[in-house]
Amino acid sequence: MNNAASILILVFLAISFLQSGYDKIFYWKDNLDWLKGHFANTRLKNHVPLALMNVLVLEMISGILCIVGCIELMVNNGRLFGYYGAVFSCITLIMLLFGQRLAKDYDGARTIVIYFIPAVMAVYWLN
C-alpha cells in the first residue's frame, strides 16, 4: 500500500462530509432552525436555506469524490478523483469557515481549521 496516508485522509473526509450531509438531509428543519438563530445578526440571515442547500450539495460532492478516490487509489493507483475530493473538501471547509467567521463564532471557526489541515495535505499528496 503506497497510498495508505492518502486513503486514510480521504476516508476521514468522506466520513465527515457524508455524515454531515446525512444529518442535513434527515434533520433539515432542526438544522435550519439552529442556523437561522446562528446567522440572525449577519448578512446571511435571509439566505440561510439557500446557504444550507449549497453546503449540503458541496458536502455530498466532496464525500462521494473522496470515496471514489479511495477506490481508485486501491484499484489502479489513480489520483484524479481523490484529488478532486480533497479540493472540493477544501472549498467546502472554506465556505464553512467564512460562515463561522461571519457569525463571529470563533470557536467554530477554529474547529474547521482542524479539518482543513488534513484536507490540504490530501490536495498536496494527490497532486
Largest sheet: none
Number of domains: 1
Mean of the pLDDT scores? 96
Order of helices and strands: HHHHH
- Helix count equals 5
From the spread of the alpha carbons, the general shape counts as: elongated
Give helix % range: over 70%
Termini separation: 18 Å
Strand content: under 5%
Number of strands: 0
Which runs of at least 5 residues are low in confidence (pLDDT < 50)? none
Cα gyration radius (Å): 15 Å
State the secondary-structure class. mainly alpha
Report a brief summary of the structure.
Helices cover 84% and strands 0% of the residues. The protein has 127 residues and is mainly alpha-helical.
What does this structure look like?
The chain crosses the membrane at residues 51-74, 81-102, 108-126. It comes from Flavobacterium frigidarium. This is DoxX family protein. The chain has one domain. It contains five helices and no strands. The chain has helices at residues 4-26, 28-38, 48-76, 80-102, 106-126. The two termini are 18 Å apart.
